[in-house]
Amino acid sequence: MTTFSELGLETKVLRAITEMGFEEPTPIQAKSLPIALDGKDLIGQAQTGTGKTAAFGIPMIQKIDVTEEKVVALVMCPTRELAIQVADEIGKLSRFKGLRVLPIYGGQEIGRQIRALKKHPQIIIGTPGRMLDHINRK
């Protein structure tokens, strides 16, 4: 089995993985990380709690340049609870790299989200309805 350190990840990403307590990739991560890090598309399916967020989040974080002043990645989640959970996990994985992660979802004041969008997050995690709302407001 491949370890996280054998995947050629940046030191800052590896540090976050280690501090989160991940010792070795889960099966979904072991299968998907090499493919995604190589820039190839994939579809993965696994049970709840198996590390799917890290499976797509680690390659996404690895590939984003911290100096980007625009949205580079959108992650769509079906519920606000999942959007918050995914944003928290992506935030933890990217904290040493310094990427800006923003969750957007209904039930939170849209003005607050608009102000946060003006700070140029690189990663947005949101629900479909609220994402469309922001797109329609330009």
Structural overview:
It is a single chain. The chain is mainly alpha-helical and 138 residues long. The chain has 6 helices and 3 strands, in the order αααβαβαβα. Helix 2 packs parallel to helix 3 (52-63) and helix 3 (52-63) packs across helix 4 (80-94). It starts with 10 loop residues before the first helix and ends with a helix.
In short:
It contains six helices and three strands; from the N terminus they run H-H-H-E-H-E-H-E-H. It has 138 residues and is mainly alpha-helical.
Q: What would the keywords be for this entry?
A:
6 helices; 138 residues; single chain; three-stranded parallel β-sheet; mainly alpha; 47% helix
Low-confidence runs: none
The spatial strand order of the largest sheet comes to 1-3-2
What is the strand content? 5-15%
Envelope shape: globular
- The number of distinct β-strands equals 3
Q: Mean pLDDT score, rounded?
A: 94
Which structural class do the helices and strands define?
A: mainly alpha
Topology:
Blueprint: H1 11-19, H2 27-37, H3 52-63, E1 73-76, H4 80-94, E2 101-104, H5 110-117, E3 123-126, H6 128-137
Parallel strand pairs: 1-3, 2-3
